[in-house]
Amino acid sequence: MERLQNFIDGAYCDPVKGQYLDNYEPASGTVYSQIPNSTEEDVELAVKAAEKAFPIWSEMSKSERSAILVKLSEGIQARMDEFVKAESRDNGKPLSLAAHVDIPRAVSNFHFFATAIIHYASESHQMEGVGVNYTLRKPIGIVGCISPWNLPLYLFSWKIAPALAAGNCVIAKPSEITPYTAYLLGKVAKEAGMPDGVLNILHGEGRYAGDAIVKHTKIKAISFTGGTATGEYIARTAAPMFKKLSLELGGKNPNIIFADCDFKEMLSTTLRSSFANQGQICLCGSRIFVERPIYDKFKEEFVKRVDSTVVAHPDNPDAKLGAVVSKPHMEKVLSYVELAKEEGGTVLTGGERVTVEGYENGYYLRPTVIEGLSFDCRTNQEEIFGPVVTITPFDTEEEVLMMANSTKYGLSATLWTSDLKRAHRMANELHSGIVWINSWLVRDLRTPFGGMKASGVGREGGWEALRFFTEAKNVFVKY
Ligand code: NAD
Fold first, then answer.
1. Which helix (H) or strand (E) holds 220?
2. What angle do CA 83, 88, 94 make, to 5 degrees?
C-alpha cells in the first residue's frame, strides 16, 4: 500500500517515530494509503530547516519570491488532472467539483498572492511640520498553517500562499483525513525552485503534529481553519506565548429568502448553497428562512429538486453529491437527523444513507430537508456540516433578523430580495463576516474573508492576509 511522506527541508522523508495512520477513500469506505502520524520530533526537524531557510527567503526580492510562487501555481495547473483525481478520491467530492472549484482555486491562490505581494505597499503618515512616519512590513519568521478536510488544497494554499509571499517560512499541516494533495504539493514546490526548508509539509493528527506546531516557541504565528472547539483550544494554548493568531472556524449560516426574490435563480442557487460538497462547506446556508407568502411554493419545488439530486460515486459525471468525508462524520450527520426528529422536526426528504452499487461501504447520504423546528433548538443552533438543511417560515424583517442572528456563529449569510433598500438594511444588521445578496459563494480574493463571534478571529484574503503574515514596524523621522 502506498505510504505518504512528510516534506521537510526540500525532501520527502519518513516520520521520525515511524508511526502511520490509515487513509480512507470515502467513496468505497476502504483504506487506500497510509500517512505519517508525525510528532514533535518531526516538527522540530521542520523548524530547524525553516530557521536555516528564513534568511534566504526573507531577503530575496519580492519579485524573485513572486516568480517562484507563479511557477508553483503553474506547476499545479500543469498537473491539474493528477490533483483533481487525488482530491476527489481523498475527500469523496465529485470529480467535477474538484475540477471546477478546488484545484483551480488552489492555482489562483498562489497566483493571486504571487502578484499581490508585488503591489503591497506599506503606509506612511506625515505630521505636518514635525516629521514623517513610515511603516515597514517585515516577515514574521516561521509560521504554522493548519487546515481542515472539506476543501483540502483550496484552504491549505489559501494560507500558505500569503505566508510565503510575505517572506515567511512555513510549517504546514493539512487535515489527516485529506492529506493527499498537500503531499503532492511538495514536489511541485521543489520543481518551482522553492529553496529547501521554506515550505515544510507535515502529516498527522492534530493532537500530535498540530499541537506541536501550536506549542513550538519558534513558530510565531498560527493560521488555523477548522472547528470552533479546536480553535478555542489553539487560542488557549497560543495566547500565553503571544503568538499571532488567525482563526477561521465553524458556521451555521442563514439563507434568507423574501417573497420578492427572483424565484428561479434563488432556487437553483439555494440547491448549491445547501448541498455543494455534500453540505461540507463552512459557508453553506444550512438554515433557510422563507417569507410566508412563498413558503409552500418554495417547500414544494425545493423538495422536488432535492429529491431528484443525484448522489453517486464521485467519478460519475452525473453526481451532484459524492460521499461525505468519513464514517464518523457520516454518523454524526445522521445523529443530527435523529435529534431533529426528537426535537419535533419533520424530514421532508432524505435523512438516510444511500447505497451506491459496487461501493456499498461508501459514506453516501441523501440530501436532507427538515421543517417544523423552532429557531432555537439544537438542530438550528449547532453546526452539522453535512447535507442537511432546515426550512422555517417568517413574517417580518425583524423576526427573521432575530432568528438569523440567534446562533453563536457569524460566518456568512445569504439574502434573496429585489428590494434594494431592504437588502442594504439587512446586510447592515446581520451578524456575519460575509453577506451575499442574490448570490452565494462569489469570491473576490481581495476581499476580507472570515467570521464574527464563534466563527473566528481575524480575516484572510487580500491585504488582510498579508498584514497578518507581517509584523508592522513604525519608524519616525523628525524633519
Ligand atoms: P478540526 O478542527 O477537527 O481540524 C482542523 C485541523 O486542525 C486539522 O488539520 C486537524 O488535524 C487540526 N487539529 C485538530 N486538533 C488540533 C490541535 N489540538 N492542535 C492543532 N491542530 C489540531 O476541523 P475539521 O473537522 O477538519 O473541519 C471542519 C470544520 O472546519 C468545520 O467546523 C467547518 O465549519 C470549519 N471550516 C471553517 C472554514 C472557515 O473559513 N471559517 C472553512 C472550512 C472549514
1. strand 219-225
2. 130
The CA distances from residue 335 to 18, 37, 341, 351, in Å, are 36, 29, 10, 10
Q: Is the CB of 210 under 6 A from ligand 1?
A: yes
Taking residues 81-97, report their average pLDDT: 98
* Residue 477 · residue 131 · CB < 8 Å: yes
Distances (CA, A) of 16 to 230, 282, 431: 25, 34, 46
Q: How confident is the model at residue 47 (pLDDT cuts 50, 70, 90)?
A: very high
> Which residue bears the cell 514546490?
189
Q: Is 150 in the pocket of ligand 1 (CB under 6 A)?
A: yes
Distance 156 CA to ligand 1 centre (A): 11
pLDDT of residue 377: 98
Q: How far apart are CA 398 and CA 404, in angstroms?
A: 10
Phi, psi angle pair for 21, to nearest 5°: -120, 150
The answer to whether the CB of 75 is under 6 A from ligand 1 is no
Q: Is the pTM of this model over 0.85?
A: yes
142-146 and 199-201 strand pairing: unpaired
Catalytic residue among 248, 291, 371, 460: 248
